[in-house]
Amino acid sequence: MRKSANLFLLFFVIVLSGCRQKPDPVIIKLDETLKLKNTYESYFKDRMTVLKRVLSDQKDPDQIYKLNKRLAEEYMSYSMDSTTKYLFANETIARKAGDLYKKAETDLCLAEEYAMSGYHIEASEILHRYSTITIPPSLKKHYFEDWHALSGELMAYASNGSIYNEKLSDRDMYRDSLLAMTDSLSFDWLNLKREAAESSNDINTARGYAKEMINISTGNSHDYAKACYFYSLYFTGRDQSGKRLEWLARSAIADVLCATKDYAALNDIAKVLFENGDIDRAFRYAADNCMQDALFFNGKLRPWQISQFFPRIEKAYELKSRKQDNVMHAFFFILTLMLVLLAFMFANIYNRKKVLERTNLKLKALNSQFQEANKVKQEYIALFLGILSENINTTRQYKNHVLKYLRRGNDKYLVDEIEALPSIDDDIRRFYEMFDKTFINLYPNFVEKFNGLLADGESVAPKNGEILTPELRIFALIKLGITDSSKIASLLHYSANTIYNYRAKIKNRSKGDRDKFENDVKAID
After folding, report:
1. Cα(249)–Cα(213) distance, rounded to whole angstroms?
2. DSSP 178-234
3. Does residue 280 lie in a domain region?
4. pTM for the model
5. Number of compact structural domains in the chain
6. Which tens digit of pLDDT belongs to each residue from 130-170?
7. What is the largest CA-CA distance in the chain?
8. Domain span holding position 404
């Protein structure tokens, strides 16, 4: 049994060790943050509700335009539908007012959103339209930023080398133009320099710019999330997987805190964890967060990106789940078997306990009987010795008395004296009295309990100063273990027939089974 228990424990440890993997502390923090995802999202919604309430109270088109623009900027990484809704509203305001600046600004915001969301054709149409329209100088930088972003997206998803090189050239050209328009050491300037270093395969320099971006970013902001993501890109190889995972997690945590739905960090984390064998967490991140958020945002890019790796994770997760199910079924089978064995063992122990209890009760009963027998033996030995000693003394005295008369030749006086002796009945009566006293001393409740065995109105009561009646005396001897009628008759100086009749008469008056009556008498304590 002990060997089976050890095998069971070994199996249990193997199952647990196979099912549990200790994650990195940063992943634990990410898990905790994701649990509060709805809370952070509610904070964002509350802030948007305040802005919308302010918007609903406005009558001035300029104020409405500004609030629409503010709402579009807030929704830009949360919901494409909401972003375009407020931008389209501003487009209507600009068209009605004939304000070309507001129209251009709104279109460029739309192009930015389209470019980053995977709607590349829509973004390209807007930007090409403005290639023949004079753009206000203050919007020139925004225009180049849109072309730079679109070129980078088209380059990343180019279907052949020539398109890739063309878009790479366009991106580098717009980046050079933007560097001349951007304040040195600003977040955007550092990002452009990072990109330039990356294009030149100068990874150490690119990592340095990304680190500077982190340093000047407000903690857990959109910029901080972007900077951490870019910084993670420069930790490659399995030996640097931990560092990459750490900065991706920092980026993902910032995305959650900012209620961002259009993100890349958590997608990459899911892929890294999958490669590291943490299939459960990878599937949970991809299925419960990445895919749902991408569909909620309603862009084209993220769902497409996720669909490239999600089927592999899903397949691996299903395979692992089946294996775990098989292991758990085996575990429960063994557990059930162990429980059956334990139940059998406990039943066996219980039965043995019951046997021991019965044996102990029998031993106690025997011990009680032995003690009672010893007590009876001691009492009657004392009685026997007393009677025997008295008889010896009486015999010795009578012998001397008879010899004295015979030596004197007074045999006539001896005959007269013998004839004048008391009747033998007196001796028998004294024997009864001595026996009764000794017996009642041993069993003071015998008469009461004996009558309890008889039917109502059939009790036996001593009369005329008797301690025991003849019937009680007979059954007292039976209680002491003397059951033979002839022996009882000899001891009590009755005929055997008289003893038989007394026994039959009393048993006929018993309350219960007459055949068990004498055993019940023996059981009286």
Report:
1. 17
2. HHHHS-TTSHHHHHHHHHHHHHTT-HHHHHHHHHHHHHHSPTTSHHHHHHHHHHHTT
3. no
4. 0.62
5. 3
6. 988 889 999 999 999 999 999 999 988 877 888 899 999 99
7. 182
8. 347-417
